[in-house]
Amino acid sequence: MSDKRSYEPKDALTLWMLADPRHPVLVGEISLVLGGQGVALRYGDEWRAGGFSLSEDLPLVDELFVPSQKQEAVGAVDDARPDRWGERVIRKFERSKRMSLLEYLLFAGDDRYGALGVSQLPDVYKPWPASPMPTLGDLPAMQDVVRKIIANEPVGKIEERLLRPGVSLGGARPKSVVDIDGHPWLVKFGEGEAEDTPLIEHATMLLAARCGIDVASTRALPVGGGHAVAVRRFDRLPGVRLHAISAHVALRAVGEEYGYPQLAQQLRRLARPDDIARQQSQLFRRMIFNILMDNTDDHEKNHALLREADGSWSLSPAFDIVPSMSGLGYQAMMVGKEGTASTLDNALSSIGAFGLKLREAKAIVHEVVEVVSDWQGAFRACQVTATDMEVLAQYLDNDRLGAQRSSGTRLAR
């Protein structure tokens, strides 16, 4: 991937905006703070004069912005970090005298989520070097490298080029990026679990689309007797990168709890005025689907906002939707007056935050229930095995979620 001997740790690097990758724009300087356990930002003069706030807790003023706690980067810079899997890949492949958050930000390279970039040079954007992007033909070899990393086995220099560490907002699932028909796709692999989780994720995303949810495009890719799932990157358009922040950053910036109602209220402020109602309704629909499909890993880094050309923000396409197969009965984010409880009654207790009337909310619940009730037929159509279906049914068709669907059907009457 790179000449590891050429890197000497620095306490400050430069941050760049790559909305037009052909013309990087200097945002400012990021630096180590909090005893080397946090990353701060100071905007450059030109960015303060002609740029925009990367997140609401980073206004365009001449100030050193410092994170409120250790092991974080400040504001939107935190979303430029690699996820847990990316950090694992970096620790495996890169050799450095120091491995702080600043090194993780640098070593994430040019594939990181969103439109930010990191460079060692003060006046030139020069990302950490990487090999050419792999293609679908490299998929079996990529899976073998993933297996070696999980097993902590040696990985050869040539094999290192197959994995990219900086391509996702959050999570520990093995992943990298591949070129499919000239567009970058995130590819996620299984971790050796009994179920074909990537295929289940693909089936769940297709089911979500049938429920009226705007989802990222996915493909199920056969590999090694199972599947990987490819997710088309929605932060990349031809010749353009979209600045993105997670719900984690958006809600933290204004001191709000991590919750669906709280995110809906932020959409009221941040979305284009003529699009607020649609986006709030869409978020409510996603919450209902996650409840009914036992997706209890719907944490605040699995929701994102994209910055539009006019400066407004919009919900990104939904991603990382898959049954947790845990039956916890609690979502990762706040749902309603009963906290994170995974019930339709709890979801309906917060409809005011979504700008919905009771009749409208019940209609959405009914629409989602009607589609989710046929989840088995939808999953069979995606070739999910009978064995995996049996495991899923333990959680999706049990007394709790089965009863939820029945109550959802009655709600619309």
How would you describe this protein?
- The protein has 413 residues and is α+β, with helices and mostly antiparallel strands.
- The chain folds into three domains: 7-119, no CATH class; 136-236, Phosphorylase Kinase, domain 1 (2-Layer Sandwich); 241-411, Phosphatidylinositol 3-kinase Catalytic Subunit, Chain A, Domain 5 (Orthogonal Bundle).
- Helices cover 34% and strands 16% of the residues.
- It has helices spanning 45-50, 84-93, 101-107, 139-150, 157-160, 197-210, 247-253, 260-270, 276-292, 344-348, 358-372, 375-381, 386-396, 399-411, and strands at 12-17, 25-33, 38-43, 72-73, 116-119, 175-180, 183-188, 218-223, 226-232, 236-237, 240-241, 244-246, 304-307, 313-315.
- A five-stranded mixed β-sheet has the order 4-3-2-1-5. The protein has a four-stranded antiparallel β-sheet with strand order 6-7-9-8.
- A hairpin with a 2-residue loop joins strand 10 (236-237) and strand 11.
- The longest helix is centred in the last third of the chain and has 17 residues, at 276-292.
